[in-house]
């Protein structure tokens, strides 16, 4: 057997990609399929083991049907394994004609090439600078409601570090994110699951659960650091940032729910968020029905929704950029499984059951949908570093680009691609398990959201004609 891995070809356009020719030398596997419009293909490639691997090479040439566009996939190993896209007779908003985009290579795993077209016919790819991807996309998604837009999202967003927690809590079973909030924003995340707790008199992000009334878990970033990192980002980029505040505890007082006075003090800390979206007397207005232009046409916006427990009131804070559950209704139902296949089938089935974006109001199902592409540790996983939360996340990363994308349709797609370890694709917790290892950052999930907005939502006449 040779040395193999995968290339995902994600075609987010209305044109098939057809093979015009291939050639290879000493490659054990180098076979390339047609990639149908609006679909994704995972292609296996394998370098040979005979002779000098430095001579191994392959080329596959693709035509973009009904256009003059062409690109090529090239594999070579001058000093390391590498898959490269060359835009021979094609260009995207991020890469001019003739560009060469090195994708790297991952043994037994995937690298991804994503190209999609928006309503204007402009091509997008996962190369170049799209940090402010929402603002760059306003021409096509600015007049869509939040219920009609897809974005990456961060589960337990504040847990990008592990601070002291309860007995049994470790960075392996408590830390859910590799990147801090600012870097998650750079990687494309726009929906943040923030879970503040009071710990040693300080407001921190927490990852806790209650088992028979006893709190188990640990702490992450200071909430003040979360505020600063969001502010640092919105000072540079006119993007929408949605922060969903929930799962609050007073860990200094037997993990009790926060009192009204404590909530008010937390609101005062969160008031440090600049660019908060504010509305006087919002009442029960559903802001997921507002279009993106309402939030970021001329400025950044930070939308803070508070999952207030019974008896807790927003009071005057409702006029200061804090909204209740009625103002941002959403569907969020995770699989609660450590099995990848079960989780994927669960989330796709729920998506297909709960979403139907069609013009007929009687048939329409369009509640803002959280697509929880997350694995949950089983009890036997908690003390097993190999089954660390972020390792589990990396194990289902590649499937987002094929199994999930191919399940989406113009009428059925999620609003949030909700993940742990956003922005990475390789296991960061490996033997000897003394600390989180350094791994490279990957921004493909940002481009996946763009492709969903272009190739799925952008092909829905009800959405594109909605003003």
TrEMBL record:
GO MF, one annotated term: phosphoric diester hydrolase activity
Signal peptide location: none
GO biological process: lipid metabolic process
Alphabetical list of InterPro entries matching this protein: PI-PLC_domain, PLC-like_Pdiesterase_TIM-brl
Domain of life, source organism: Eukaryota
Protein name as catalogued: PLC-like phosphodiesterase
Organism encoding this protein: Massarina eburnea CBS 473.64
């Amino acid at each position: 057997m040779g040395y193999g891995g995968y290339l995902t070809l994600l075609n987010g356009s209305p044109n098939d990609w057809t093979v015009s020719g291939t050639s290879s030398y000493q490659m054990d596997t180098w076979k390339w399929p047609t990639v149908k419009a609006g679909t994704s293909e995972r292609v296996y490639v394998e370098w040979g083991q005979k002779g000098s691997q430095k001579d191994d090479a392959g080329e596959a040439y693709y035509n973009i049907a009904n256009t003059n566009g062409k690109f090529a996939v090239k594999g070579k190993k001058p000093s390391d394994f590498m898959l490269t896209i060359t835009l021979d007779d094609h260009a995207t908003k991020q890469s001019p004609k003739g560009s060469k985009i090195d994708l790297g290579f991952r043994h037994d795993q995937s690298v991804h090439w994503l190209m999609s077209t928006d309503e204007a016919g402009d091509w997008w790819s996962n190369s170049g600078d799209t940090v402010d991807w929402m603002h760059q996309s306003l021409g096509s998604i600015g007049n869509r409601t939040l219920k009609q837009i897809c974005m990456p999202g961060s589960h337990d967003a504040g847990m990008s570090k592990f601070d002291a927690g309860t007995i049994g809590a470790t960075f392996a079973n408590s830390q859910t994110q590799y990147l801090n909030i600012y870097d998650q924003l750079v990687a494309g995340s726009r929906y943040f699951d923030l879970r503040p707790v009071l710990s040693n008199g300080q407001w921190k992000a927490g990852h806790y659960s209650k088992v028979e009334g006893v709190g188990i878990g640990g702490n992450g970033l200071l909430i003040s650091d979360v505020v600063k990192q969001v502010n640092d980002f919105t000072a540079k980029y006119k993007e929408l940032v949605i922060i969903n505040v929930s799962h609050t505890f007073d860990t200094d007082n037997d993990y009790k729910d926060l009192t009204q006075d404590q909530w008010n003090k937390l609101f005062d800390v969160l008031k440090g968020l600049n660019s908060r979206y504010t509305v006087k007397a919002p009442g029960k207005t559903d802001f997921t029905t507002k279009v993106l232009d309402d939030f970021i046409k001329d400025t950044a916006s930070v939308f803070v929704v508070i999952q207030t427990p019974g008896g807790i009131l927003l009071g005057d804070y409702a006029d200061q950029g804090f909204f209740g559950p009625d103002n941002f209704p959403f569907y969020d139902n995770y699989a609660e499984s450590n099995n990848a296949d079960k989780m994927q089938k669960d989330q796709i089935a729920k998506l297909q059951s709960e979403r139907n974006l069609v013009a007929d109001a009687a048939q329409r199902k369009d509640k803002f949908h959280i697509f929880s592409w997350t694995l949950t540790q089983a009890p036997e996983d908690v003390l097993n570093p190999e089954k660390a939360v972020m390792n589990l996340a990396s194990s289902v990363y590649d499937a987002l680009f094929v199994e999930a994308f191919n399940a989406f349709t113009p009428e059925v797609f999620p609003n949030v691609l909700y993940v742990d370890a956003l922005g990475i694709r390789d296991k960061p917790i490996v033997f000897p398990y003394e600390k989180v290892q350094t791994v490279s950052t990957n921004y493909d999930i940002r481009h996946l959201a763009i492709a969903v907005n272009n190739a799925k939502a952008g092909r829905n006449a009800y959405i594109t004609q909605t003003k």
